[in-house]
Amino acid sequence: MSNPPLIRVENLVKSFGSRRVLDGISLELGEQESLVIIGGSGTGKSVLIKCILGLLKADSGKIWIKGEDITTLSSSQRQEILTHCGMLFQGGALFDSMTVAENVAFGLVQGMRMDKKKARKIALEKLKAVNLSPAVANIYPAELSGGMQKRAALARAIATNPEFIFFDEPTTGLDPIVSGTINDLIIRCVRDIGASAISITHDISSLRKIADRVGLLFKGKLIWTGTVEEMDKTKDPYVHQFINGLPDGPFTQS
Amino acid sequence: MFENIGRIVLLFFGNCGRVSIFFAKSIHHGVQPPWYGRQFLRQLIQIGYFSLPVVGLTAIFTGMVLALQSYTGFSRFSAESAVATVVVLSMTRELGPVLAGLMVAGRVGAAMAAEIGTMRVTEQIDALVTLSTNPLKFLVAPRVLAGLLMLPALVIVADIIGVLGGYIIGVYKLGFNSANYIQQTWKYLEADDVISGLIKAAVFGVIITLMGCYHGYNSERGAEGVGRATTNAVVSASILILFMNYALTVLLFEK
Q1: 20 to 30 A from A8, CA-CA: which of A27, A112, B67, B176?
Q2: pTM value?
Q3: Which residues contact B64 (CB under 8 A, 6 or more apart)?
Q4: Best mutation target, B132, B137, B217, to test chain A (most A CBs within 10 A)
């Protein structure tokens, strides 16, 4: 990689009480790269993303975003960096007191101080990009189905044309067909705006679609990384058990 | 046993510190632009306008009971003429702010804790941060400021309605002369009585909204976490209101 990485994490440690959730994680994300982190439930995948975004404060370790160490920045400087990022939350996390269009336009209006009319126009475009009709723009998120909420949330995540996007279990709780659509939309939207992405998932079919590189998280450590082809060929017993969903193996032994 | 006392004391001061930091941060962020006018306006309506029925009902019944009870007492030593004065002083100095505060704590404090708690649990607060918006500034500051302004306004209404309740009982049940009763109401009322009540109300407004926001903001996972946040918001706001009411009364009394 000739360019410096967009995001670099070094030796990240985070504990909740006596439980060490992240135990010295290091990773890099290059430009226009899609990194997918897999791992069992409760292994700290969400915590990792939240630490990178500064939603949680890491106990130790360094995080560089675009060459700046965000662990040393003030909250307002970090906010500035966050204008370059988008995040798709597991449950969508749409603001239920606002309409779908207001949700999608939120980052533009509040974060980038854009004119409301202009922001709405962009919001409608983004809704179209995720295959939502303009008819849903003026209704509230609670009236949408789960798949539509995810799509609206995706539209909100890409509305500001971020340089990197985080996806927290984008397909969890959706049927295979809707999952497939979401995966396609993720690939297309990320490629269209030329962004990099870190996704966390335990959906292997989703992983095969969206990943350039894969990292396996276990007991707070990134125990394996590689490309999707390498993942299929590797003899690593952890990877083998996880992607094949085997009940017996190193995961279940410890 | 000492261990337990120590733990409770530590917990208490820990919480005081956390609430103070939360409050200071909200104010610090709240006074810097950008301001969220629409959020503020919505809270003004939520806290002020929609609390009017509850506060009004509380005030009118309180005023009526006050008139009846003080009449019972004063008639025993033929001082019935003091009823109007007692009603207006009790309402403005004490019962208007305290009862309005407690009712609003139940209505608004609980709703705030539940709303913000749900936003916390469904990651909407995290989403705010990722969309470059400071949640303290966007959610907390407008609410606290609206509470600070609306509670005194509500208390003015409560004072008037409470005195009206006393008047209704005084004139139609206890047989006071209408003009006399009104004159007695005004005669001993001083600006300080009303102002001290309004100062209390402003403090209560901050307490209610701050407790609602603080507990909602720090809500734990799940429906249970939000439920606990709501309970804590109302209970802590009510206790703080009663405590601050005493503290402020002492302070304003000695003036």
Answers
A1: A112
A2: 0.87
A3: B165, B166, B168, B169
A4: B132
